[in-house]
């Protein structure tokens, strides 16, 4: 059997096994679609968490592409946006201009934007940032450390995912998929108004 036919047979068998295990899970259906888009897309759904329903402050550490170390505790006292992305992700490219626009609008109001790059090497990430004029930093998260750390608070579940942290460092909102600019602006305005 040739290598190509062996891989095709193995891939078909894997797809059957995965399909049998996944049922009606839409994320699993996307993974099994075989369309080679290389990401699990969110549907743009927004989940807001009332103050009484929020878990404890998030905990993570990471390293920015410039080598600087960051810790979730560094962002306490301000509203923080965590945006999970990577350069080849089409929805990430779609939302990047709006992320930068909101970063420009809200940075003076006490909002900190922080990207979490889940896949790219430094040169690729920096090219993306230059192309879209992004001025906020990103954490290198190829090993999934930040992503994993945040799953105990709220699962990101798709790329892109945008999390809004309140001033106490707790997740107050999550957007799965492309963050609509108006929606994210409203979430930030609400979070800033909280005590």
From TrEMBL:
Q: What is the name listed in the Swiss-Prot or TrEMBL entry for this protein?
A: Thiol-disulfide isomerase
CDD domains per the UniProt record, alphabetical:
TlpA_like_family (cd02966)
Residue ranges annotated as transmembrane are none
Tell me the ranges covered by the Thioredoxin domain, including all copies.
49-193
Span of the secretion signal?
A: 1-19
Q: Which organism is it from?
A: Arthrobacter glacialis
Among PANTHER family, the record links this protein to: THIOL:DISULFIDE INTERCHANGE PROTEIN DSBE
Q: Keywords in alphabetical order, please.
A: Cytochrome c-type biogenesis, Disulfide bond, Isomerase, Redox-active center, Signal, Signal-anchor, Transmembrane
Q: Which GO terms describe its cellular component?
A: cell envelope
**Record-level GO BP terms:** cytochrome complex assembly
Tell me the lineage of the source organism. Bacteria, Bacillati, Actinomycetota, Actinomycetes, Micrococcales
Q: Where in the cell is it found?
A: Cell envelope
Q: Name one GO molecular function term.
A: antioxidant activity
Q: Which InterPro entries match?
A: AhpC/TSA, Thioredoxin-like_sf, Thioredoxin_domain, Thioredoxin_ResA/DsbE_sf
Under the heading PROSITE patterns, the entry gives: PROKAR_LIPOPROTEIN, THIOREDOXIN_2
Query: Which Pfam families does the record match to this protein?
Result: AhpC-TSA
Principal place where this protein is found? other
| Top-rank lineage group of the source organism | Bacteria
């Amino acid at each position: 059997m040739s290598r190509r036919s062996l891989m095709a047979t193995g891939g078909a068998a894997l797809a059957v096994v995965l399909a049998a295990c996944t049922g009606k899970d839409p994320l699993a259906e996307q993974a099994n679609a075989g369309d080679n888009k290389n990401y699990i897309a969110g549907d743009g759904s927004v989940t807001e968490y009332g103050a009484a329903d929020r878990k404890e402050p998030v905990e993570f550490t990471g390293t920015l592409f410039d080598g600087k170390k960051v810790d979730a505790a560094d962002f306490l006292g301000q509203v923080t946006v965590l945006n999970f992305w990577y350069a080849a992700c089409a929805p990430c490219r779609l939302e990047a201009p709006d992320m930068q626009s909101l970063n420009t609008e809200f940075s003076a109001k006490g909002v900190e934007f922080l990207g979490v790059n889940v896949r790219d090497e430094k040169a690729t990430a920096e090219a993306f940032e230059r192309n879209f004029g992004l001025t906020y930093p990103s954490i290198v998260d190829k090993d999934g450390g930040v992503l994993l750390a945040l799953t105990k608070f709220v699962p990101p579940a798709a790329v892109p995912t945008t999390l809004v942290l309140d001033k106490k460092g707790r997740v107050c909102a999550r957007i799965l998929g492309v963050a609509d600019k108006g929606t994210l602006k409203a979430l930030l305005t609400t979070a800033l108004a909280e005590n």
